[in-house]
Structure to design on (250 residues):
């Protein structure tokens, strides 16, 4: 299937737009359970403590697959890896509406962490090829802004959906919406910008390696001790920020 040239936005902007939409959707999918919590507790006969543990279980697989997902993204490329990740978190979201009890609720929440954990390091890899080096800070800020917008609108969105199709239907609807993004991604994105049918010479001139994709780097000895010392302060700060953020979100 050929890709038609956009008359409105260049291909790099559309790729960044798809990534922004992905950040938005994934944050909706990770926060929606907290909004629907009261209905889930009542329907599945859970305690608040049990629901809290289910929500927290997401973080276990999320942390593991941030590392594993980044490793897979380096080998498979962003197109294939994000396609698989999207299928996982879209399926996990839809299946949440079909759970029958505490065990199955844990399983879908852990599955969501697997899909979303691998998503974000791979999205950064996609930006490496499609965003000029001098605009990577802007791209990261824009995508993260969309994730925060997702946080903001999730309660309103979930309440509206629950009012129409109940909490189970709300999760199924969000899962189907997520699948629409997965289809758009695998259809439009290419790991090598130069191979995209809508790319222009002007676009290629601005992209890293003139749009030929990430260059293969030579094997180097990683200075782990020095690297850990430099990363430790920001890692500690981000841990504290993440703990506080999740307390307020959930």
């Amino acid at each position: 299937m050929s890709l038609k040239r956009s008359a409105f936005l260049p291909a790099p902007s559309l790729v960044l737009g798809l990534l922004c939409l992905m950040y938005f959707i994934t944050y909706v999918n990770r926060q929606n359970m907290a909004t629907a919590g009261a209905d889930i507790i009542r329907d599945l006969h859970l305690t608040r403590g049990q629901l809290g543990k289910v929500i927290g279980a997401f973080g276990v697989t999320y942390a593991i697959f941030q590392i594993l997902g980044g490793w897979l993204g380096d080998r498979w490329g962003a197109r294939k890896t994000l396609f698989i990740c999207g299928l996982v978190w879209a399926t996990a979201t839809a299946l949440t509406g079909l759970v029958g009890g505490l065990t199955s609720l844990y399983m879908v929440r852990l599955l969501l962490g697997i899909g979303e954990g691998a998503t974000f390091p791979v999205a950064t890899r996609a930006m490496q090829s499609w965003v000029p080096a001098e605009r990577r800070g802007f791209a990261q800020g824009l995508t993260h802004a969309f994730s925060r917008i997702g946080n903001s609108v999730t309660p309103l969105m979930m309440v509206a959906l629950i009012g129409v199709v109940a909490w189970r239907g709300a999760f199924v609807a969000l899962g189907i919406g997520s699948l629409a993004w997965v289809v758009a991604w695998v259809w439009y994105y290419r790991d090598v910008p130069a191979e995209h049918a809508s790319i222009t010479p002007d676009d290629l001139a601005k992209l890293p390696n003139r749009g030929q994709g990430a260059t293969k780097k030579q094997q180097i000895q990683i200075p782990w001790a020095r690297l850990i010392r430099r990363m430790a302060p920001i890692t500690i700060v981000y841990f504290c920020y993440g703990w506080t953020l999740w307390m307020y979100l959930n």
